[in-house]
Design brief:
Organism: Dipodomys ordii
Structural class: mainly alpha
Number of helices: 14
Helix content: over 70%
Transmembrane segments: 40-61, 73-95, 115-135, 155-178, 198-223, 244-263
Keywords: Cell membrane, Disulfide bond, G-protein coupled receptor, Membrane, Receptor, Transducer, Transmembrane, Transmembrane helix
Family: Belongs to the G-protein coupled receptor 1 family.
CATH class: Mainly Alpha
Membrane topology: Multi-pass membrane protein
Amino acid sequence: MTSTQPLLFSSLSSKPNPGEDEVELNCWFNEDFKFILLPVSYAIVFILGLGLNAPTLWLFLFRLRPWDATATYMFHLALSDTLYVLSLPTLVYYYAAHNHWPFGTGLCKFIRFLFYWNLYCSVLFLTCISVHRYLGICHPLRSLRWGRPRFARLLCLAVWLVVAGCLVPNLFFVTTSIRGANILCHDTTRPEDFDHYVHFSSAVMGLLFGFPCLVTLVCYGLMARRLYQPLPGAAQSSSRLRSLRTIIVVLTVFAVCFVPFHITRTIYYLARLLGADCHVLNIVNVVYKVTRPLASANSCLDPVLYLFTGDKYRRQLWQLCRRGRHQRPTTASSLALVTLPEDSSSRWALASQDYGSSTTRALHWELKRKEKGLSAGQR
């Protein structure tokens, strides 16, 4: 490792504070900005995230039942975000105290584990919503089998367990160490175990972020192409525009929260692994630390998805804010969250409860097309 350049020395204080992840003791990271950026940003995420997700959980539990498949995914997404924001006060204290962790090694492991558990559960729940909407719009008949609420509940349970299982090694890598008068809570691991951690982290990133991100992009690309194609006998409507807005919102969450964090983290890990110059490491480290609050901000942006895509959710939230009278729970149907009359007797009413008006029209016309094909065959 080469020594840091004179220009860099001039930007550091006479007694620089070591970062929790520096490569060698002779490479000091200039992280004074972190002790302001991270406590402030985490405090904002905690306040906004708890203020937005706690009412969301209450609405899903008491005002939007029974749930369809998409409402099930959204509830678990809100639950994941709530669990994460509850862990942020300890990180606010840690970074405000200039990398001093007085809460013990066990809690350090759990808090670091919770960050990545929420991150990747959020990615997978958004992917589940994407696939569910893709089936509802592009394959409405097939979606009747795979879009049932019971299947969604089992899939959500699998997401929690799979992500937790993949992150179990993180509990062994993350630890605390004493550095001067401070007790560090490592975000990755000790410098001597860093090579092994990079291989583990790369595998987890590819499995729990790279592949789901690709699936989401493919699903929304196919959905957008289908939505832009005019349906027989159906005019352009607000439901179609709402579906397109849904695509934009979810892709924005990926682009703002998940993609920058994973790209900068990958570059940072590679720079350390390849023994880059200390000046380069400092630059990469600054960019990586700046994107970490963006990854946490998904806890605040996910409720925006409910507001943009859920008519029923917006109405119930507005009534909650106005402290209106309690109303009977109604069905939370898909991203549109449209409540259907219980006496609907058409053959495709069940599908419309689970996929919204645009999917209902697609299902209706596909059924009519199959009926015409059967009639022609009989003749």
